[in-house]
Structures are given as structure tokens and as C-alpha cells.
Amino acid sequence: MIQWYYGTQGQQQGPVTETALRQLMAQGVVTRETLVWRDGLAEWKPMGEVDELLAPPLGAAAAMAYTQQAAYGTVPQCGLAIASLVCGIVCLFTCYVHGLAAIPAVICGHMALKKIRESEFPMAGRGMAIAGLVMGYLGLLMQIATLVAAGYFYMEVKKSFPSPP
């Protein structure tokens, strides 16, 4: 059985089995940049450069997706965050009806942030969700300002015309 050593905080750790090393990777204790070594390697290497550690273990279909994400650095994107950003952009460029796209931008933004925060695995899109929220709230403010201005001008016009006797 191959025994692995890894370095954290300037200290050598191990020996551990490949399974234990993969568990540490899933927990985030070791990353692609963590230096690893085993008997037969000429020198310590970053884990991301050791091919045998990048391949998913046989029979671990459930852990395969996360192992690949941790090994290759791919993180799933939150679709709600993208929807929030798109709706936020649309709401800023729609004249007089900002609220039509602003409300979905705000709703999707809050749902995306909750989904990202409560996700078991890392998920990208927090910045897009926040940007969508900001633009959504700006769109709502512009909609309210438009309605207040329209109401004000309506009242001014109504004052200038006397009511019939």
C-alpha cells in the first residue's frame, strides 16, 4: 500500500493512505497547491501535478464530481445568480417599467445568495447575485421615482385646469 506525505503550514504530515489523502482534499485540508510526496517520486510536487491523485478513485461515483471539482478547480455556477444579473441589467435599460425586471432580479438575487450560502459544495456566482440585487433595487427606486413624478405632474396639471361648475 502506497503511503503519502503532505505539507501543511510548513510541517510534514503523514504517512496517510491515498483514500485518507482524498478525504483531506474533500474537506479542503489539502488543495491542488499542497505539496505531496511518496516513495518513488523524485521530489515533493504540488498535488495538482500528480496525475494519479487527480484521477477519481474506482468505485467512488458519489465522490467523483467533488473530487474532479477540487482537483481541476471547476466550481458550478449558480443559475439564479445569472438570472438575477440579467434581470438587473434589463431593469436599468427599460424605460418607465423598471419594476417588471427589477422584482425578478431582487427575488433571484436573494434566492441565489441563500443557495450559495447553504450549498454543501463550493458554488460560484455570489458577485453576480449581489450585482443583480443592487441593480434590481436601483430599478425599483427608479420605478417609484417615476410613479411619484407622474403623480406630481398629474396633480399640477389638475390644479391648472379649474373644475367645471
Tally of helical segments: 6
Poorly predicted sequence stretches spanning 5 or more consecutive residues: 59-63
Structure summary, number of beta strands: 4
In what order do the strands lie side by side in the largest sheet? 2-1-3-4
Derived structural class: alpha+beta
How much of the residues is beta strand, in percent? 5-15%
What are its keywords?
single chain, 165 residues, alpha+beta, Dna Ligase, domain 1, 2 domains, four-stranded antiparallel β-sheet, 58% helix, rod-shaped
Q: Can you walk through the features of this model?
A:
This protein is of the alpha+beta class and 165 residues long. It folds into 2 domains: 4-72, 2-Layer Sandwich (Dna Ligase, domain 1), CATH 3.30.1490; 79-160. It is 58% helix and 10% strand. The protein has helices at 18-27, 51-54, 61-72, 79-92, 99-118, 126-160, and strands spanning 4-8, 11-16, 35-38, 45-46. It has a 4-stranded antiparallel sheet. 22% of the residues are buried.
What's the topology here?
Layout lengths: L3 E5 L2 E6 L1 H10 L7 E4 L6 E2 L4 H4 L6 H12 L6 H14 L6 H20 L7 H35 L5
Antiparallel strand pairs: 1-2, 1-3, 3-4
Helix pairs in contact: 4-5, 4-6, 5-6
